[in-house]
Amino acid sequence: MYAFTYERPTSRDQVLALARAGGKLLAGGQTLLPSMRLRLAAPEQLVDLAGVEELRGIRREGERLRVGAMVRHADVAESEEVRAAIPALAQLAAGIGDKQVRARGTLGGSLANNDPAADYPAAALALGATIHTSARDIAADDFFQGLFATALEEGELITAVSFPCPQRAAYAKFRQPASLFALIGVFVAQGADGVRVAVTGGGNGVFRHAAMEAALAANFSSEAISQVPTDEGEMSSDLHGSSAYRAHLVGVMAQRAVAQALAQG
């Protein structure tokens, strides 16, 4: 590595002051620290958020579930509150990476990083979540802006995420065997405002599948989307899978997610 300073603030105000001074925020560090080892990132100051208790916690607020930005994947997976309110979210968290990643990675860190194959962005977008920051509230539809890009401004801190509790929802993922990221992941949610379908792993970032949403709004069944195509021209292609293969997987994973949602009632 190289020389840098390390700060561990205990309050949000301290975090924001350090961030405004140019400090690099460290949530779970599952992307940042490997990037530093490879010299792809070279921050002069790390600001570790692990000591800020106000960024933790999971609680039900009426028909919404509020999860603190520094809640770890393992905590989401094991939370009785999450399992009762949005079991699909707990299942998604349980399938992120391996035990070591789940023990360190955080919800806020994942959303702020917005890896194009990450799992949480699919849940946030499909559930119509609201990302709460130190400055404002951002709808998931406005938050994700492409490859590792979000609506966050310089020095802006994710504090929590609020998920509407759906009538039913499920997430199906085809894992890339080496990284355990989603080669394709599809989160399907049916709520009071209709059906939302979010796809991760397919392109430059998470996106909603409008054609599948329309088909499922008319008939919430796997059969309803069995013939709904996904434009392979919008899919990425690499050594792990061609664009045509990924487009095919979107249909397969979406049908599996719908079947899971129906099975859960």
From TrEMBL:
| Record keyword Disulfide bond present | no
Matches recorded under SUPFAM superfamilies = CO dehydrogenase flavoprotein C-terminal domain-like (SSF55447), FAD-binding/transporter-associated domain-like (SSF56176)
Q: Name one GO molecular function term.
A: FAD binding
Which Pfam family name is an example for this entry?
Answer: FAD_binding_5
Superkingdom: Bacteria
FAD-binding PCMH-type domain ranges (all copies):
1-168
| Keyword Oxidoreductase set for record | yes
Alphabetical UniProt keywords: FAD, Flavoprotein, Oxidoreductase
Cited PANTHER family: XANTHINE DEHYDROGENASE SUBUNIT C-RELATED
- This protein is called Carbon-monoxide dehydrogenase medium subunit
Q: Which organism is it from?
A: Melaminivora alkalimesophila
